[in-house]
């Protein structure tokens, strides 16, 4: 059961990954072009992403208006006939500096901004995934304001590989950016120590969940199921949560494809999988889909890891199709959708979301309403079902999980061969919050 999280700013994931070569670990602090003094032949800021014209905006350097030096960065809405949107420029710096906290100070000036001005700072890991993020209070930054310094502080995790800084303009108007300063534990970046073990070799970018080299389809009852395969060895089936896709399993695909043949699946009506059915969705149907996928791949027995809805499906597979399941690991699974398992406030939130979706007529909203409705009505797993499970099962949840801890313990207590792990400090999103610890626990269990 996965909650929908909306981010104000675009992630830049693909563009950033494609352009990460600009953040060479051999660069010196003065070469990051933080004052926008270095330009290309087309008056674009050297080593910054987001130079192209987009929706009537331009991103260039401006030699007329600047805080100091010869130039500043300018983001401007130039074509009033095209719809307004959010346009950003992205600077990437290697996170090779030792320290606990980073502060980014930036001078901004803006004129006639209709929506808002933003300034985001993030630290990403080697796989281009966000570890830490912070931004200025963008709600107050609109209208016209002369040059003023703004600051964003953010922790600097040891596993960080890239620092991202992106100013942005939403709506109409102009934004100037100049004289960016980066402080590591209060000292200028030029004085910061370097990590002795920093790996400067960039990882290749793999579009998990949309990878033609690894993807294929299987036709099942009234659906076309998309899956991707990585690695070699014993099969390991990965199942995501409600309203998610293969991409949510990225951290587990990267780690476990080193040891297993990983089959990551978009369950019906989610990701790239198509759903032509009209009846209410059920986890029993999802389990049947997965059996068909395994049959089509000639896999008679597999390990399974299921997160949230995927965990519900995994439990059902374990007692309905026991010969198919070698070992099963579930994260944030439930037996039923009542206040004995899930807080009433979350159930009310889901009901409210369904009402909003049902008021819309587009296909995507209709499908989302079906998925959320399943959250309220499913699953229907009994104690007798759990006692039928023959495979070893690892039952996991976060101490701050939306699934009540007593319910997670109840599931583990009723499975004959089970292990229980409650991750301290983690929520329902432990697989992406505490990646190293989570993957380590799962790896030991599967071995």
UniProtKB/TrEMBL annotation:
Residues covered by the AB hydrolase-1 domain = 235-340
**Gene3D superfamilies xref list:** alpha/beta hydrolase (3.40.50.1820), Galactose-binding domain-like (2.60.120.260)
Q: Give the residue range of the signal peptide.
A: 1-19
Keyword Membrane in record: no
Q: Which InterPro entries match?
A: AB_hydrolase (IPR050471), AB_hydrolase_1 (IPR000073), AB_hydrolase_fold (IPR029058)
Tell me the superkingdom of the source: Bacteria
* Keywords linked to the UniProt accession: Signal
Q: Does the keyword Cell inner membrane apply?
A: no
In its UniProt entry, what is this protein called?
Pimeloyl-ACP methyl ester carboxylesterase
Which species? Pedobacter steynii
């Amino acid at each position: 059961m996965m909650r929908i999280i909306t981010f104000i700013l675009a992630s830049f994931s693909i563009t950033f990954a494609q352009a990460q070569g600009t953040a060479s670990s051999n660069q010196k602090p003065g070469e990051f072009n933080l004052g926008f003094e270095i330009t290309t032949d087309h008056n674009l800021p050297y080593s910054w992403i987001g130079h192209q014209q987009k929706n009537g905006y331009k991103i260039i350097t401006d030699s007329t208006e600047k805080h100091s030096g010869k130039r500043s960065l300018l983001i401007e809405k130039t074509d009033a006939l095209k719809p307004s949107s959010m346009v950003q420029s992205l600077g990437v710096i290697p996170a090779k500096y030792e320290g606990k906290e980073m502060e980014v100070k930036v001078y901004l000036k803006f004129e006639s901004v209709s929506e808002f001005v933003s300034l985001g700072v993030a630290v990403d890991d080697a796989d281009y995934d966000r570890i830490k993020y912070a931004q200025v209070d963008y709600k107050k930054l609109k209208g016209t304001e002369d040059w003023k310094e703004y600051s964003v502080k953010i922790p600097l995790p040891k596993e960080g590989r890239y620092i991202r800084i992106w100013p942005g303009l939403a709506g109409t108007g102009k934004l100037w950016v100049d004289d960016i300063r980066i402080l590591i534990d209060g000292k200028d970046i030029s004085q910061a120590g370097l990590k002795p073990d920093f790996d400067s070799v960039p990882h290749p970018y793999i579009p998990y969940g949309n990878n033609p080299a690894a993807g294929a389809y299987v036709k099942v009852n009234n659906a076309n199921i998309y899956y991707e395969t990585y690695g070699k060895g014993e099969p390991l089936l990965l199942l995501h949560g409600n309203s998610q896709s293969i991409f949510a399993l990225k951290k587990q695909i990267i780690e476990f494809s080193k040891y297993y043949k990983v089959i990551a699946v978009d369950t019906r009506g989610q990701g790239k999988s198509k759903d032509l059915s009209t009846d209410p969705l059920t986890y029993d149907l999802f389990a049947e889909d997965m059996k068909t996928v395994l049959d089509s791949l000639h896999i008679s027995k597999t390990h399974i890891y299921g997160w949230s809805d995927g965990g519900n499906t995994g439990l059902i597979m374990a007692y309905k199709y026991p010969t198919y399941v070698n070992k099963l690991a579930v994260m944030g699974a439930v037996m039923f959708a009542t206040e004995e398992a899930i807080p009433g406030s979350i159930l009310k939130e889901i009901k409210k979301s369904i009402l909003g979706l049902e008021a819309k007529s587009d296909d995507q909203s209709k499908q989302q309403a079906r998925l959320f409705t399943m959250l309220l009505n499913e699953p229907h797993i009994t104690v007798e079902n759990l006692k039928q499970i023959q495979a070893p099962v690892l039952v996991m949840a976060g101490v701050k999980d939306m699934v009540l801890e007593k319910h997670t313990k109840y599931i583990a207590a009723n499975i004959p061969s089970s292990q229980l792990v409650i991750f301290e400090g983690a929520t329902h999103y432990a697989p992406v919050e505490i990646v190293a610890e989570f993957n380590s626990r799962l790896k030991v269990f599967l071995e």
